[in-house]
């Protein structure tokens, strides 16, 4: 059994059982990879993959068990490489971050700017996707960190550190009737067509839960993953917008009024997640510290010492996370 064979089956399982895609990812030939997979199956005396003709279509029960252990072996191998790199040069390497549009557009720019300034020899890649996609990337080792508000709890291989809490703003054009109210209620908001995030993005579940709890059934007429797109359609008069408060800029969006909705919805929490058992290099730990920005609660060093997500949850059980707008300015 060769380590490369384990990497082959791991990559094939990650890419929809497409040998050609996995071969491209590993810069090798499709035929050579297929031969090595067959050789491994022959050596083990069982089938790892289910086949339909020449095509791989799934994994056998034995294959699923083997894949779990193969992933652990490959992770340990990657940890050895990271350990060696840390001893050779602790300020150079690569960092892959998977996150959503909201985080990459409104939260990460000052963090990444400060990080690149401090670690100019670290190659940084930023991948955007749905919360499920980015959590899966981190869980499978394709990204070092996943940063999101939703979906990460669905992946047991992730260790997630809560970083900050945030809430929403109700967005209306100037002169809108809602802007004249002394106290905004959910019923007031639900009386108008709504423009907000796609289900599964940017804390949308908290929004839906709040309306449902009061027996309200708002009419959502348009959804998008991008707050700037939502603003565009609010300007067109399509409906009242509900966006993350971090996405409103008083100067750039001066034609719109952002009504504080903190009393209407529960706070959402954004987390940074990494794959359980991964050796984090010093600059990766520093990136977590920069992003978390929590000077009063548990630190990153305490989080990475935790053995399970339940340990992290207990660590933060009595911690009041900072609100995004009150987080320290790391660029100073």
TrEMBL record:
SUPFAM superfamilies: Periplasmic binding protein-like II, Winged helix' DNA-binding domain
DNA-binding found in the keyword field: yes
Record keyword DNA-binding present: yes
Residues in HTH lysR-type domain copies: 1-59
Keywords for the protein's UniProt record, in alphabetical order: DNA-binding, Transcription, Transcription regulation
GO molecular function, one term: DNA-binding transcription factor activity
InterPro entries, alphabetized: CysB_PBP2, LysR_HTH_N, LysR_subst-bd, WH-like_DNA-bd_sf, WH_DNA-bd_sf
Family matches, as PANTHER family: HTH-TYPE TRANSCRIPTIONAL REGULATOR (PTHR30126), HTH-TYPE TRANSCRIPTIONAL REGULATOR CYSB-RELATED (PTHR30126:SF6)
Name this polypeptide is given: HTH lysR-type domain-containing protein
Provenance organism: marine sediment metagenome
Lineage, uppermost ranks: unclassified sequences, metagenomes, ecological metagenomes
């Amino acid at each position: 059994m060769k380590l490369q064979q384990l990497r082959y089956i791991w990559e094939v399982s990650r890419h929809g059982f497409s040998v050609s895609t996995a071969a491209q990812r590993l810069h090798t030939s499709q035929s050579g990879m297929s031969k090595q997979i067959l050789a491994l199956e022959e050596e083990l005396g069982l089938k790892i993959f289910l086949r339909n003709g020449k095509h791989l279509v799934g994994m056998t029960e034995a294959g699923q068990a083997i894949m779990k252990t193969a992933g652990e072996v490959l992770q340990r191998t990657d940890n050895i490489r990271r350990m060696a790199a840390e001893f050779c040069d602790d300020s150079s390497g690569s960092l892959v971050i998977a996150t959503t549009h909201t985080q990459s557009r409104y939260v990460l720019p000052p963090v990444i700017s400060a990080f690149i300034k401090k670690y100019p020899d670290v190659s940084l890649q930023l991948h955007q996707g749905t919360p499920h996609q980015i959590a899966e990337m981190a869980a499978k080792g394709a990204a070092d960190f996943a940063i999101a508000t939703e979906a990460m709890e669905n992946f047991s291989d992730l260790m997630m550190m809560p970083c900050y809490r945030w809430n929403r703003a109700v967005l209306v054009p100037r002169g809108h009737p809602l802007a004249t109210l002394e106290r905004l209620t959910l019923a007031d908001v639900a009386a108008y067509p709504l423009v907000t995030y796609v289900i599964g993005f940017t804390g949308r579940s908290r929004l839906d839960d709040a309306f449902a709890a009061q027996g309200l059934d708002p009419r959502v007429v348009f959804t998008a993953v991008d707050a700037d797109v939502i603003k565009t359609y609010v300007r067109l008069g399509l409906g009242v917008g509900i966006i993350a408060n971090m996405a409103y800029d008083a100067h750039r969006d001066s034609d719109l009024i952002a009504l504080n909705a903190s009393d209407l919805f529960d706070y959402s929490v954004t987390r940074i997640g990494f794959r359980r058992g991964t050796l984090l290099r010093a600059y990766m730990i520093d990136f977590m510290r920069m992003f978390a920005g929590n000077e009063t609660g548990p630190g990153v060093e305490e989080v990475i010492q935790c053995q399970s997500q339940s340990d992290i949850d207990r660590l933060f059980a009595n911690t009041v996370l900072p609100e995004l707008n009150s987080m320290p300015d790391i660029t100073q």
